[in-house]
Amino acid sequence: MHELSLCESIARAVTREAAGRRVSSVRLRIGALRQVVPDTLTYCWSITSRGPILDGSVLEIEHVPAEIECHGCGTRSQLSRFNVSCPGCGGNDVAVVAGEEMLIVSIDVAETPDLSAKPPDQAAAERH
Amino acid sequence: MGRFHRHDDGTVHTHDHDESSHSHGTEEHPGHSHDHGQDDLGDHSGYATGRARIEILEDIFSENDRCAAANRAAFDAAGVRVINLMSSPGSGKTTLLQRTLADLQDRLRVGIIEGDIETPIDAERLSGYGAQISLLNTGNGFGGECHLDAPMVARALAALELNTLDLVLIENVGNLVCPAEFDVGEHRKAMVYAITEGEDKPLKYPVMFRSVAAVVINKMDLAPYLDFDMDLFRRNLATVNPSAKVFELSARTGEGVAAWVAWAVGTSLP
Predict the structure, then answer these.
(1) Full-model pTM
(2) What ipTM was assigned to the predicted interfaces of this complex?
(3) CA–CA distance, A59 with A96 (Å, rounded to integer)
(4) Has residue A55 been placed in a domain?
(5) Would residue A10 count as lying in a domain?
């Protein structure tokens, strides 16, 4: 539901890291427990990624399924619905070990800075 | 602004982005291309396509989380404990806060951060109990933000004198999705849930229900008129959050409110 504000955070971090170079793709790793709708995120990126650094860049979203690990019996299991009962022993002393990721993994940029591009600070300021 | 970078070989390092230019020892970290200083542009002989990959590995929430940590440090420095109160719209958060303030008046110095959408109606309902109230309208008159984030709470702190308070209650925006994602610097998260919402919501919004230390089950005075199955609700809650404290109460009649207030006060003790 807050995909637009997520995209604004992503745009700020990516613009800073790109240091004036044009960005072609942004790889994200997002866990199933982060309540993000990938299509909505992609749509919001098309709105957020205006300007010389980010224009035309695409999001590549790697989805990470939710997994729990039981402290009692050590069973590690993937979840399709959230449930803290261990399928191995029925105990509920479990830890979420995957599915909460929310990372910008890497970006691809042109090797040389786009001289027509404005400095990242100015480009970021103009987006707001 | 040092940040952690994790590499495939398992090494982790931090570096400072405030420097205008830097590069990493490539002997130490082969394959690492996180160089964005102007000096080393053009030194990418391995990239025939004219593109470079920059590894970032930064949490998308890192900006928010840094701000939340600063809020928490400000609360701790002032000796204030903070509860972030979340719910769907219409569950009775504001009525519960009204009851809570009436109960704590002259006992505990309370501040309220009121983050609900659009009108100052809630803040007006909460005035008159001696609490400091900071109103954060999250919309422009036609709906608005779906959650509070840490920078919004940081802005709200300007209207509170933290040094004169014991407990701050944050009334988040009514929504069972987004508020669960944003750490605002609170010490505890709690939910208000009305029995008019049915038994199934813990299964539909597990991230929210899992995030809280306590669930207030409100509108118990309506139980005789509803088919609400409390055992089923509690089973569903235990499926996602077996350790949550549960308080059954009616904010309208006041019945059961004392146990919730005792928990909130207990939370305010370090």
Answers:
(1) 0.81
(2) 0.81
(3) 26
(4) yes
(5) yes
Question: At residue A111, what is the residue type?
Answer: E
Output the tens digit of pLDDT for each of chain A's 128 residues. Answer: 689 989 999 999 999 999 999 999 999 999 999 999 999 999 999 999 999 999 999 999 999 999 999 999 999 999 988 888 999 999 989 999 999 999 999 999 998 766 555 555 555 555 55
User: Is A80 within the bounds of a domain?
Assistant: no
Set of chain B residues whose Cβ sits within 8 Å of the Cβ of A61: none
Number of domains, chain A:
1
**Cα–Cα dist A9/A12, whole Å:** 5
Q: Helices marked H in chain B — which ranges?
A: 62-78, 93-104, 121-126, 150-156, 201-204, 206-211, 230-240, 257-268
Domain carrying residue A107:
3-65+99-114
Contacts of B117 in chain A (CB under 8 A): none
The rounded Cα A67 to chain-centroid distance in angstroms is 18
The CATH number linked to A21 is 3.30.2320.50
Rounded to the nearest angstrom, the minimum Cα separation between A27 and chain B is 9
Select from A104, A126, A92 the least CA-distant residue to A29.
A104
Would residue A42 be called left, alpha or beta, if left means φ above 0 and alpha means ψ between -120 and 50 degrees? Answer: alpha
CATH fold for the domain made of B63-268: Rossmann fold (3.40.50)
B4 lies within 8 A of chain A by CB: no
